[in-house]
Amino acid sequence: MPVDTATDFMGILSSQCAPVANVTNFQKLAYAQLAGLQSAAGLVPWLQFGEFLWWYFSSKQNVPVGFASYTSPISVGIADPHGFTTGDRVIVSGVQGMTSANGTWTITVTDSTHFTLDGSSANDAWVIGSGTVSGGSMAYYDAATTAAAQSTLGRAVFPFTCQDDDPAVNGGADAAFLANQLKAHVDAIRQAVLAAYPNAKFELLYPDDVNHGTCYKNAQNPYPQGGRLNAAVNLPAGWKQQATSGFDRLKVEALSWGATYRNLDLAINAITFSSSRTVAWPLASVAYMVPWFNGGCPWKTEYQLAATLGTALINFWAYDHLALMSWPLPFPDPARRSLFAG
Fold it and tell me: So what's the pLDDT on residue 29?
């Protein structure tokens, strides 16, 4: 199935790009041209590998629940044909009343618009109009990736159907294959740039929310963010340490934790990501991007936390938001508060 990805502008979606030869070759040219423009201006070329690398949505994202039975197992229905297959995994989120339906489930298809959640038990009546379903297929099944899997694994990639699928299936070989495809794509672009501009520098923009190891949502924003599969596929093993990454800087962002979900515990996890969860980057080569949008966004707290920890570079996304919100400057002084209390 085709898979779309968010652009975060006016609800516009774009096609998810796979790291395959035609995309790699196009991006080699684009990156080399950007490096050339910077070099011609007397600058050291600094180039970022960012959002086009993230494999993170399934083909059906946040489809409204149209029916949920008070039965065991719970039967879920949606308005249009779902296209799911028995054995697929889906994420159900935002269901009210029958909250036991929320989570990541293997399903049994009962007809074109209904399926049951294997092993589920109803705990209350469903609140009509609440809940969404995400699933269908991830963006791993284009012809080029399929051929590469056949060559590398000797078989097709496991049929992953949602961002919270278990990456340990087949001993983790499928998730590792996908991660290596991503790394090889970036390495080829980086090496093409270095061949023309040996002094070029490179930055990885890593989204801790999109790739968070635990699929997260809350009552105010019942849209699944992150998941086990995303965390495994979008962070190749070589990127976990600077020495094997090929990057000069790791920039961590988790814009939704503070600006959308308002969860400072998760924001702290993102700020400390570079030195936790098997990741080991020196602070001197780490940057953090603070979300600077939505009324009430706790940007000052995130800035203070990042600064107090000694993060080498703190960026904000984005300046026009500051102007629109009329937030006052200067920045708060992190030296005037303790890092954490309680």
Answer: 97
Q: What is the average per-residue pLDDT within 89-102?
A: 95
322, 315 contact by CB (below 8 A): no
Q: Is the pLDDT of residue 337 over 70?
A: no
E-strand stretches of 193-312 = 201-207, 249-253, 286-291
Give the Cα separation of 336 and 99 in Å (integer).
Answer: 43
- β-pairing, 249-253 with 13-15? unpaired
101-106 contact pairs (CB < 8 A, 24+): 101/68, 101/74, 101/76, 101/126, 101/131, 102/131, 104/162, 104/164, 104/165, 104/215, 104/227
Query: How many residues are there in the chain?
Result: 342
Chain centroid offset of residue 288 CA: 16
Q: Do the beta carbons of residue 142 and residue 20 sit within 8 Å? A: yes
The string of pLDDT tens digits covering residues 288-327 is 999 988 877 889 999 999 999 899 999 999 877 777 777 7
Tell me the DSSP string of 127-178: -TT--EEEES--S--SHHHHHHHHHHHSSPPP---STTS-TTGGGGHHHHHH
Q: Which of 213, 225, 307, 290 is nearest to 251 (CA)?
A: 290
